Amino acid sequence: MTPTAPDARADGDLYETPPCPFCGAERRTSLYRSVKRVGEPLGEVRVSVSQCDDCGFVYNAPRVREDVLESYYATSPLASGQVFRDESAQGYYPQLNARRARHLAGVLRSHPRGRLLDVGCGVGGFLDAMKAELPGGWELYGLEPSRNAHRQSTDKGYAVANALLGSDGMPAGSFDAISMISVLEHTTDPMAALERIRELLAPHGVVFVEVPNVLWPELSLSGFFSLEHIQHFSPHALTRAFRSCGWDQVLNDPGDHGHALRLLGSADLTGWGCRERSEFGEDRDRAAAAVLAYARQENAFVDMLNRRVRDVLSDWSERGLRAAVYGAGFHTLALSSHVDIQGACSWILDGDPKKQGTVFMGLPVHAPEEIPGLGIQGVLVSSQRFQEEIVRRIRSIAGSDVEIAVCYDDPRNTFLAGP
Ligand SMILES: [Zn+2]
């Protein structure tokens, strides 16, 4: 571990070095550094993860400057929120949203009516799941800054404001429950975001926040640590943030096994019929150990994966197979910095209609439905989270006429540390 001086600044035009977003301290210890390919317009960026020497919070420092990050979200086809999400009932996200909704609704159901706001509601997937779980007296609202996602969620009939938290213009105290899933880790000022939620929430309302759990970093090719995820919460750190907003009573989702951190908080969970509580002790040493273990294993993991993909592609090349890679995103970009994807594959397949018809890494992007028409004989599935879903999709389109190669033996088995 290398203590980093407070004024150690990287390239001022791209990076900034913020103080700890929780306690404002400038002293920090570097835990992880890497260079990531993130596509145009940024190309390669440095990702640096540090831990506050005062309070133990883990956050990106230095990090890509806020205005650069905003324009990246607005323009990069690889930025989160731009990605096609399979909404079919058996798809990854609907299943995930159903599990989240069962946890939150398990508490809210004690009240026949109320008002729920989902912050960063995207295309309304979590609202769909809550609608299925909650009594009919509940009104569902959303807040979503992306214009495209906002349109899709309002098309479903939800009342969604097209704004960022903080410039939402909503009246104080107007919601009984507020959910915020996969948002807080992206915010440059997480305390300001939680403070705004506190204002919008009725005094005894319930907040539900989900973030990646830094105690369980998942090994991945494009990296658990990225330019987008700039705050890294442990159970203790998120509980501490909740307490500073007056939500002293906290409940964790026992069904989640810790991979994501799913906390319910309230000033009074008992009023919601909830008798259980979760307690988390100080975990700054475990958080540091988890990040350092991740840093040690990431390179070996990436090397193993690249070797495996090289073997598959060279076999296909020798046999003259007409090959494609599935996935016009980060995962393929990361593979291509070590493996000659373009040399072995003539097409990229992707289920996202926005990507189809474009060119990615110099290769034309096609819909998977075009596999038979293009005469494709081999498909390399370049995805970790969606590997199994994509394999099923290819099989349903091309049957056994196509060879499928995957990157992971078991993509769910790539979590490292843990409680
Ligand atoms: Zn701190």
Question: What would the keywords be for this entry?
Answer:
20 strands, Rossmann fold, binds zinc ion, 3 domains, globular, N-terminal domain of TfIIb, alpha/beta
What does this structure look like?
There is one protein chain. The protein is α/β, with parallel strands linked by helices. The protein folds into three domains: 63 residues, N-terminal domain of TfIIb; 191 residues, 3-Layer(aba) Sandwich (Rossmann fold), CATH 3.40.50; 101 residues, NAD(P)-binding Rossmann-like Domain (Rossmann fold), CATH 3.40.50.720. It is 31% helix and 24% strand. The protein has eleven helices and 20 strands. The strands form four sheets. Strands 9-8-7-10-11-14-13 form a seven-stranded mixed beta sheet, with helices on both faces. Helix 5 links the parallel strand 10 and strand 11. Helix 2 crosses helix 3. The chain starts with a strand and ends in a 13-residue tail after the last strand. The relative contact order is 0.11. The site of zinc ion has 8 residues, from loops.
How many beta-strand segments?
20
Unreliable stretches covering 5 or more consecutive residues = 1-10
For the termini, the CA-CA separation is 22 Å
Radius of gyration over alpha carbons? 22 Å
Q: Which bin fits the share of residues in helices?
A: 25-40%
Q: Give the overall pLDDT as a whole number.
A: 91
Number of helices: 11
Q: How many domain units? A: 3
Shape: globular
Roughly what fraction of the amino acids lie in strands?
A: 15-25%
Largest sheet: 7 strands, mixed
The largest beta-sheet arranges its strands as 9-8-7-10-11-14-13
Q: CATH homologous superfamily of the largest domain, by name? A: Vaccinia Virus protein VP39
Under the CATH scheme, which class of the largest domain? Answer: Alpha Beta
- Name the ligand types: zinc ion
CATH architectural arrangement of the largest domain: 3-Layer(aba) Sandwich
CATH topology of the largest domain: Rossmann fold
